[in-house]
Amino acid sequence: MIDRRLVTNFDWLLLMLVLALGACGVVNLYSAASSFGGGGTPVYLKQIYWFGLGLLVMLAVAMVGVQRLSSVAYPLYILVVLMLVAVLLWGRVIGGSQRWLALGPVVVQPSELARLAVILVLAQYFQRRDQNQPYRLHQLILPLGLALLPALLILKEPDLGTSLLVLLVAASVILVNGVRLGSLAAAGITLLLALPVAWHFLKDYQKRRIFSFLDPESDPLGAAYHLIQSKIAVGSGQFTGKGFLSGTQSQLHFLPEQHTDFAFSVLAEEWGFLGALLVISLLAAVVYRGLAAAYRAKDRQGLLIVAGATAMIFWPAVINVGMVVGLFPVVGIPLPFISYGGSSLITTLAAVGLIQAVSMRRFVFHRP
User: Fold this and answer.
1) Which backbone phi and psi does 337 adopt, to 5 degrees?
2) Side by side, which strands form the sheet with 106-108?
3) Which class for 103: exposed (0-12), middle (13-18), buried (19 or more C-beta within 10 A)?
4) Are 249 and 366 spatial neighbours (Cβ–Cβ below 8 Å)?
5) CA 178 from centroid of its chain's CA atoms
6) So where are the chain's domains?
7) Which of 138, 54, 66, 110 is closest to 307 using CA atoms?
8) Is residue 224 helix, strand or coil?
9) What is the per-residue pLDDT for 290?
């Protein structure tokens, strides 16, 4: 039997916002991939299939609840780490990156699952070690290690963008849990000092992307090509856009990766400032519903899980939009609900399921 209070407290507005974003993504992908040649299933149809599957995953996560999910947090974390190791050993190489693992007829990207696993394992860790005072830096060594292990494995693929997202999501959970101001300052200084070391481990193409971000005109036909074409597409959309299927940058293939990393550039060119503002507003509304659910959470574990799930939507949205307009370097992070990608879309909808799971049970108390 399903508790009626769960259905009553289901956040229907959040679901409507997600459906609206999914519809915007499908329409945008229809245009972005309309000029693609070759046979096979069109990209927008694949996105519909993935979105439908993602909605089922969202509902399953919401109905299972965080209590049961948290009980398998550590096994799930270990499984994801093993899958990331398997990717490095036997993963499928596409576009020079080894990020995908074939499990029979299904190809998955374990790095996307790592964000969910890190959220659940950190929430479980802090829930078991509940304390009233903010954490000191030395008390965060283990939780930081839990985040760094999958992040480093993902960076080895190489996938700088997803590795960065894992760390940002983990940092969001840790900050919400509570960190002493002095420890936070020490961590910031340590991070700055570690940047030269991190630079040494970046691939050559990643270094070129950073240089092209600082000086786009230095290599307009090379490393800076993506950024320059994206800014042209966004700027040419002006206030109301060029119209559906009328974007020159996308239809004439000047814009690379226009159905994945630069899907927002296609949207801004065809629908202009108004269309871009609509999508950003919908994403902001989803984040707001997540923050509202975190505020209403009845325990620390629910608070941390919703904070992490909301960060899974907030950070990719901020970085992707900033990336396509030239505020951030190109790091290959898709825009939630808009960019094409099965693993990314299902994982994001699973995060929405976590938000719903906590929101639905804010008035349901379990016996200890």
Assistant:
1) 75, -15
2) 92-94, 97-103, 106-108
3) exposed
4) no
5) 23
6) 4-360
7) 66
8) coil
9) 96
Question: Which amino acid belongs to residue 250?
Answer: S
Six token digits for residue 306 = 């919703």
Amino acid occupying residue 105: P
Backbone angles phi, psi at 39, to 5 degrees: -90, -155
Name the burial class of residue 365, with classes exposed (0-12), middle (13-18) and buried (19+) by CB atoms within 10 angstroms of its CB. exposed
Residue pointed to by tokens 């999501």: 169
The kind and range of the H/E element at 70 are helix 66-71
Q: pLDDT tens, 188-227?
A: 887 788 778 777 777 777 777 777 777 776 667 666 788 8
- Let me know the angle formed at the C-alpha of 150 by 258 and 312, rounded to the nearest 5 degrees: 50
Confidence (pTM): 0.91
* Cβ proximity of 49 and 67 under 8 Å: no
What pLDDT band is residue 95 in, cutting at 50, 70 and 90? Answer: low
130 by Cβ neighbours in 10 Å (0-12 / 13-18 / 19+) ranks as exposed
Where helices occur in 129-259 by DSSP H, the ranges are 141-155, 160-177, 181-201, 204-214, 225-236, 248-251
CB 355 within 8 Å of CB 293: yes
Dump the DSSP string for 237-289.
TTTT-S-TT--HHHHTT-STTTTTTTHHHHHHHHHHHHHHHHHHHHHHHHHHH
Cα 348 from chain centre: 6
State the sign of the Cα–Cα–Cα–Cα dihedral 276, 278, 281, 286. Answer: negative
CA atoms 254, 92, 333, 153: torsion sign: negative
The β-bridge partners of 97 are: 94
Q: How far is CA 80 from the centre of its chain?
A: 16
Q: Is 124 strand, coil or helix?
A: helix
Per-residue model confidence as pLDDT tens digits over 302-321: 999 999 999 999 999 999 99
Largest CA distance in the chain: 64
